[in-house]
Amino acid sequence: MPRLLVFAACALLPGFAYSQSNNSVVIWPINPVIESGERATPLRLENPGQRPILMQIRIFGWQQIDGDERFVEQKDITGTPPMVRIEPGQQQLIRLTRITPSPAGSEQSYRVIIDEIPLTEADSPAEAGNPAQGAGAAIRFRMRYSVPLFTYGEGANTRAAKTETTARPALQWRVVKADGGNVLQIRNPGASHSRLSGVAQKRSDGTSSKIEGAHGYILAGATMRFPIAQAVVPQARLFADVEDNSSAPMVPWQP
Question: Do 165-252 and 26-123+141-152 have the same topology in CATH?
Fold first, then answer.
């Protein structure tokens, strides 16, 4: 099962200073789902570092509106326990439980937000005794990790979404000007999310090239915007590299 090794220096919250850290958090699975016939799914955290960590777990509804990511309060899913202390070398199971049934035939999207809460020096004696750490004792750090979570109502599931790719509506694209540059807009008219690992353009002469900067999730029925450095050649065909490592043709977005 794929695991996500998250180094503590890779994600900062606004208002907190940057610091190199020897600690890291292992999170798996990296793409948890709650299928239509399931009530819960596990998420595991592991502390491979040399000091204890304190983690807070919250779950937000995940929306994409006008090309922007939005996290909203929700009461459909709970994560228990909501706060855990993990000793060095230990693991913790987090249970993601569905409280409210998902609408039939639909995919619902959430983000599991995992915050590292600063520990006191008394809680972390190894760090307190480190002169290099002590020099910045007045500055505390907190890290944030974000894991996507999808749930499915009756009649919908991830296996169907993966095996029925031919029936999934094609992603739609167009290029617009914004802030003096090119922005690739991609719309997902389907009933399930798409995860882009890249986009390529194929020219009429048969040559192709990658379009840098276009990657990430596009939720069901949503539109996302990707600033791109290069222009899309007129009459070019665009192809999306999606989650199953296949290349799917996109269609021009007709106004």
Answer: yes
* pTM for the full predicted model: 0.83
Query: What tokens were used for 189?
Result: 């008219």
Residue 67: which region, alpha, beta or left (left: phi > 0; alpha: psi -120 to 50)? Answer: left
- Above 70 in pLDDT, residue 117? yes
**Architecture of domain 26-123+141-152 in this structure:** Sandwich (2.60)
Pairing state between β 53-65 and 68-72: antiparallel
Residue count of the chain: 255
CATH architecture of residue range(s) 165-252: Sandwich (2.60)
- 207-230 per-position pLDDT tens digit: 999 999 999 999 999 999 999 998
Whether 121 contacts 129, CB under 8 Å: no
Phi, psi of 225 (to 5 degrees): -115, 135
Question: Phi/psi of residue 55, each to 5°?
Answer: -120, 135
